[in-house]
Write a structure and sequence with these properties.
mainly alpha
């Protein structure tokens, strides 16, 4: 108990964990159409490391939904082209 009240390192670490970045609010949906192929992967990794676990889970779910919807559309387009020939 004494350590948690008087330790400088504990206070710094505790403040760092509880502090939230101001002005950076996570959007409800992410636009995957805006992703560029030649983007800097190091910056992407850095941005992902700064996200919380819940934010990463939401982004992953959105990515899976985006892939599923686009694959379904692509598949329908392929079968539509096949039946017209």
């Amino acid at each position: 108990m004494y350590y948690t009240q008087h330790s400088v390192t504990y206070k710094k670490n505790h403040a760092r964990k509880t502090r939230r970045k101001a002005g950076k609010e996570v959007s409800a949906t992410y636009n995957f159409h805006d992703i560029k192929v030649d983007r800097d992967v190091k910056n992407v990794r850095k941005r992902y490391r700064q996200m919380t676990k819940e934010e990463l889970i939401e982004r992953l779910i959105q990515a899976e939904q985006f892939i599923a919807v686009n694959f379904e559309g692509w598949l329908a387009e392929q079968f539509g082209a096949f039946t017209k020939e």
